[in-house]
Every structure is written in structure tokens, then in C-alpha cells.
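Reviewers of the previous submission asked for a worked example of the structure-prediction workflow described in the proposal, so we include one complete record here. The input consisted solely of the amino acid sequence. No template or homolog information was supplied to the procedure at any stage.
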Amino acid sequence: MSEELLHNWQKRSAGRQRIYKQYLQRADKNKVLQQLPALHGEAFLNIDCLKCANCCKNYSPRFKTPDIRRISKHLKMRESDFIDKYLKVDEDGDFVVKSTPCPFLGENNLCSIYEQRPSDCHRFPYTNEDVFIKRQQITLKNSTFCPITYYVLEKLMSAESQHY
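From that input alone, the workflow returned the following C-alpha cells.
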């Protein structure tokens, strides 16, 4: 079932953005939040992030002050040197990587700072927390490049349609 669901997922997701938006706007938020942990776990069992890494190849997490502190210490760099070498300030005033793919993405899609990665990376794609339903624009954007987000949205919508 999951292989069929994931076949050609990016094209299908692009064509379903309006439907996803309508679903997220009218969904029973409490019901969705109750279903997310199980669907999140199921998605990660069926999808190997190391085969994709679209998030690391195309987008940047926010690097918050604790992230910068932790990562620069791990890399044995001064915080200011770490910022100068790897980061820039985006239009929202957040620190993000200067270039894509992420400079910490290595061979086989492995992260060279995985244990120290930014909290945004650790939490991505937010499919097991309230960000999924509360920040719908992020969920919609993520569904266009992250198969896990797509998978969870499709499962939520198919579960709802079975109740009618």
C-alpha cells in the first residue's frame, strides 16, 4: 500500500495543494493531533530519509542561538567564525545556511553534525507535533518536497474519508 501511495508522489502532491489546504482548514484539529504520532511513526517506517534528503538539498533550517553555540563548540570554532563561514540572515531575520545543499550534508545523504544538528532539523518535518496543523503554510510547502509530509497528509485524508 505505501509503495503505491508513494509512486509519483511529488507530482501528485503538486496537483493536490488546493485539496490539502482545504483539508487543513476544515480538519478537526484535536482529531488530527491524536492521529499524528502513529502516522508519523508509520511514515518513518515506510520512508527512508537517507534516500531523499530533499530538505537538506533545497532548504535551510533556522539556526537559533543554542544551535549556533552547540554546533560551533562541536566544530571547535568561535561562534562568530561559524556564522561567517556557514550562515546568513534571511528575510525573516533568522540565521540560515548560506548555500544549498546544506554544507553539513555528506555522502550517502548523511549529516556530518547529526548529533548536534539544529532543533529545526531534529523536529522536521513536524509530522508529530501541532506545527503540522497550526502552521498550515509550512505543512503545504513541506508536502511538495518531503515524502513523509505527503504520506501523513494522504493518510489523514483517507482516514477521514472512510468515516463518511
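The mean pLDDT is 93. We consider this example representative of the routine output the project will generate in years two and three.
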